[in-house]
C-alpha cells in the first residue's frame, strides 16, 4: 500500500479517518491520523491512529485484541478526510465502550 500524496492535514497535523467494515459498510468509528500514523497504517496493513488525548500514536487492538486489518484507504475529493475500509478482527468491537460500533447512541430531533 502506498501513502496517499494528496492528503491535507489540518493545522494540528491531523486528518479525520472514518473507519468502515469493508464487507457490510457498517461505520465502526472516527479517529484521527497524523502523517506518521497514516504511513505506518499503510506500511503494516493495520490501523494506527493519533490519540489527541494522549498526544501519541495508538495502534488499534494493541491491548484489546480488536485489530483492524486494512483493506483500502480512500481520500475524499478534497483530501481532508479519509475512509479506511477494514476487516475488524478479534472480539469484533471497535468502540472502547465494548460496542461493535462507536455509533450506537441515536439522537432524537426536537
Please explain how this structure is put together.
The protein is mainly β. The chain has a domain at 14-88: Ubiquitin-like (UB roll) (Roll). 9% of the residues lie in helices and 35% in strands. The protein contains one helix and six strands. It has a four-stranded mixed sheet, with helices on one face. The chain has a two-stranded antiparallel ribbon with strand order 3-4.
Describe this structure in a few short sentences.
The chain is mainly β. The protein has one helix and six strands, in the order ββαββββ.
CATH class of the domain at 14-88: Alpha Beta
Radius of gyration, whole Å? 14 Å
What helical percentage do the residues reach? under 10%
CATH topology heading of the domain at 14-88: Ubiquitin-like (UB roll)
Approximate strand percentage: 35-45%
* Largest sheet composition: 4 strands, mixed
In round numbers, the mean pLDDT is 91
Write the topology of this structure.
Elements: E1 14-21, E2 27-34, H1 35-44, E3 48-51, E4 56-59, E5 68-75, E6 82-88
How would you describe this structure in keywords?
mainly beta, 110 residues, Ubiquitin-like (UB roll), 6 strands, 9% helix, 4-stranded mixed sheet, two-stranded antiparallel sheet
Amino acid at each position: 500500500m502506498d501513502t496517499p500524496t494528496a492528503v491535507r492535514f489540518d493545522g494540528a497535523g491531523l486528518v479525520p479517518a472514518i473507519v468502515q467494515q469493508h464487507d457490510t459498510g457498517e461505520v465502526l468509528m472516527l479517529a484521527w491520523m497524523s502523517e506518521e500514523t497514516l504511513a505506518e497504517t499503510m506500511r503494516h496493513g493495520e490501523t494506527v491512529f493519533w490519540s489527541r488525548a494522549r498526544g501519541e500514536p495508538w495502534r488499534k487492538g494493541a491491548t484489546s485484541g480488536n485489530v483492524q486489518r486494512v483493506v483500502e484507504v480512500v481520500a475524499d475529493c478534497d483530501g481532508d478526510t479519509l475512509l479506511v475500509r477494514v476487516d475488524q478482527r478479534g472480539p469484533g468491537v471497535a468502540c472502547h465502550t465494548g460496542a461493535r460500533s462507536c455509533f450506537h447512541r441515536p439522537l432524537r430531533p426536537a
